[in-house]
Design brief:
The chain is α+β, with helices and mostly antiparallel strands. It contains 27 helices and 26 strands.
């Protein structure tokens, strides 16, 4: 670093500014003149060459703005101090080629009357030195590693004399003292595990013959206590001028812990950590081998059982996941006891298990295993300090169906399991092609359903809700339809259950709310339509989402519909799934001024002691009761529901009215509203509007 300028180096005078710049330009290193704010007043060519650009282009720029963001603070502190006293800083600047250069800067105060210069800064480029320092550090680190590696056993083999000098560490690896190992090669090779010896000799021979640049082999050595130590031996031959190997020198490293870790990882890769059973990957690998064998040997057959615990979620939710895990561990043990020699059980994940029943003599062999499993599950499990009863649904698929891929066989067993589960707990079902056809159709339906909303394939139909007192239309129920591009117009029975299971019903309901509210708001402008209301059904997943309140509010706000003209229908079974959780949701919806109706009343189980607590406005009598109300027994049921509703100060809406006799009975019971084919089928928006204008009376 050249000497820094000081005040006394420049005598004041009228020519000082130009003299100062001239001196700056003549400095051999990088130099710049800065004002009190750190702006460049002048820079020499050496400085500009590193930073990039011409010396003139740097004038007026702040030096700290050229620095790396991480270094700007330290540089700013240095320049602030340099106004009064000498200061130094190290920082990085962007070079003309876009790379970062490391600079060391020394700055000192410089005051010349009439000149804005306050600081002279000299710098030097130390980028290469920094790189050399980093390389030196890396070299030192490698040396330290090599030093630590001296813990390896070292050996030197004189090939001509056939003698090997073993280091003390090598002898210690096999549990021998210094004087217990001779210099014979047999001290090494006699201790090698018989399974590893041939490969070790082959690798050494290949290297000595020049077929490899280095000798490298992993093998086991017998220790003094009778156990084997895994080692890695590496070496290189020293050759004469003719290329013949004269010596072989190398090291032996104890890799026992690494091998144990590798074996553990290999085990974990194909085994379930919880149950210790083979996992899905191992199960599929076994299926693949069994399928190949079945293709080669015509008489070989096997089957797989796909098992899923019934109501396992209830165990986790009620007793905790620890108890759930203990149940899975106990189940794994029982399943293992049910197998024959050669069979396999695997934990596929969650509460799912796979069983491979090998060497079938007949399909009954697999059925017998399934029966043993179901019987084994009848006894309670003792987990978490209490008894837990469990059952399972089992699907069976046979290899005789000509499978090519193990995944397809597992898929069909899974399909059969879901069929068994749909029939009730503790069932077993054997896969047939019809199941696959149904499963494929459901998959296609689910795929199409997920796209239907964005493709605007849903539409609404409107069924009049008639006041049985006046005989006039009091409102409509919005009923969703799916205009499927290939299957035509689909009713909710064709897709609603899938929509609920996949969650598509939640955004679908939001769309229905907005569409229905906008439509009824438009019809309210028609003559006689001011009091019309609209009813929208909420599915079980809708009720489970707190966002449904926001969706209702958005639909009302967007349409301008008053809350009193919107009614939401929730089925009795949906309410009873989570009664205590539903009540706050209903109260929040009531705060918006809307009406709440219990749909399909009488078809599920509800506690009358809770019914009065529900903030609802009406009960809807299910069509199954109304349709049979002309018989005395069914009429009594309808009468009981109507009287119950009225005693709770609730209105009654009867659905499914198809005959004049049914209508007459309901009127005699003072039922407030009704709907059904006797009045009208669900209508398109245009037909519904025409019906409103016609204003019929029943």
């Amino acid at each position: 670093m050249t000497k820094s300028f000081r005040k006394k180096d420049i005598a004041p005078g009228p020519e000082e500014p130009s003299v100062l710049r001239h001196l700056c330009d003549r400095l051999p290193g990088m130099a710049a003149l800065l004002d009190a704010d750190g702006l460049v007043v002048h820079a020499n060519a050496a400085f500009a060459a590193v930073v990039g650009g011409s010396a003139g282009s740097l004038v007026g720029r702040k030096l700290i703005e050229m620095a790396h963001p991480e270094d700007a603070g330290a540089l700013a502190d240095c320049l602030r101090v340099a106004v009064d006293t000498r200061a130094e800083a190290a920082f990085r600047v962007t070079a003309g080629d876009g790379s970062w250069r490391n600079l060391e800067l020394a700055a000192a105060p410089l005051v010349v009357p009439g000149d804005p210069v306050a600081v002279i800064a000299e710098a030097r480029d130390v980028t290469e030195r920094r790189r050399e320092d980093a390389a030196l550090r890396r070299s030192e680190e490698r040396y330290a590693l090599a030093t630590r590696g001296a813990d390896d056993g070292i050996w030197d083999w004189d090939l001509a004399a056939d003698r090997i000098e073993y280091s003390p560490r090598w002898k210690a690896m096999v549990g021998a003292e210094e004087d217990q190992i001779s210099d014979r090669p047999s001290e090494w090779f006699d201790r090698v595990h018989p399974e590893d010896l041939d490969a070790l000799r082959a690798d050494i021979a290949a290297h000595l013959q020049g077929e490899s640049t280095r000798f490298h082999n992993e093998h086991r050595l017998l220790g003094r206590d009778g156990s084997h130590v895994w080692v890695l031996s590496r070496g290189a031959a020293i050759r004469d001028e003719q290329g013949q190997a004269r010596r072989l020198t190398g090291t032996t490293t104890d890799i026992t812990e690494r091998k144990a870790a590798e074996q553990l990882l290999q085990h974990l890769a194909v085994h379930d950590a919880l149950t210790g059973l083979p996992n899905r990957k191992a199960f599929l690998d076994r299926l693949f081998r069994s399928l190949r064998r079945a293709q080669r040997a015509g008489g070989y057959q096997f089957a797989i059982l796909f098992l899923d615990l019934d109501r396992f979620k209830l165990v986790n939710d009620s007793l905790g996941h620890v108890t759930g895990d203990q149940l899975l561990i106990s189940l794994a043990a029982r399943l293992t006891d049910c197998l024959r020699p050669g069979d396999l059980v695997a934990h596929l994940g969650g509460d799912e298990f796979g069983l491979l029943v090998d060497h079938l003599q007949s399909p009954f062999d697999a059925s017998h295993v399934a029966e043993r499993v179901q019987k084994a599950l009848t006894a309670p499990f003792k987990v978490g300090g209490q008894e837990v009863f469990a059952s399972a649904s089992i699907g069976v698929a046979f290899s005789a169906s000509g499978y090519e891929r193990p995944e397809d066989l597992l898929r069909d067993a899974d399909t059969a399991m879901y069929r068994a589960k749909s029939l009730g707990s503790g069932r077993t079902q054997i896969f047939d092609q019809e199941m696959h056809t149904r499963a494929l159709a459901r998959f296609m339906l689910e795929t199409d359903l997920r796209r239907a909303l964005e493709r605007r394939e849903f539409c609404l139909r409107y069924q009049p809700v008639v006041s049985l007192r006046t005989g006039r239309i009091g409102g409509f129920e919005a009923l969703v339809r799916w205009n499927h591009p290939e299957r035509g117009l689909l009713l909710p029975a064709d897709f609603l259950s899938v929509a609920e299971e996949t969650g598509v019903v939640v955004p679908m309901t939001s769309w229905i709310l907005k569409e229905a509210c906008s439509q009824i708001r438009a019809w309210q402008a028609l003559p006689g339509g001011a009091s019309l209301s609209i009813s929208v059904n909420l599915a079980s997943p809708d009720v489970a989402q707190p966002e449904v309140v926001e969706a209702v509010w958005e639909a009302l706000s967007a349409s301008g519909l008053a809350g009193r003209h919107l009614r939401l229908e929730i089925t009795e079974s949906t309410i009873m799934k989570d009664l205590e959780g539903v009540i706050p949701l209903l109260l929040a919806l009531k705060d918006l001024g809307i009406g709440i109706d219990i749909d399909d009343f009488g078809t599920g189980y509800s506690s009358l002691s809770y019914l009065h607590r529900l903030p609802t406005d009406a009960l809807k009598v299910d069509r199954s009761f109304v349709g049979r109300s002309e018989s005395p027994g069914e009429a009594a049921i309808v009468r009981t529901i109507v009287e119950l509703a009225h005693s709770l100060d609730r209105q009654v809406i009867a659905e499914g009215i198809e005959t004049a006799a049914q209508l007459s009975l309901l009127r005699s019971l003072r039922c407030e509203y009704g709907q059904g084919f006797h009045f009208s089928r669900p209508l398109t928006p245009g037909d519904a509007e025409a019906l409103i204008v016609r204003n019929p009376s029943w």
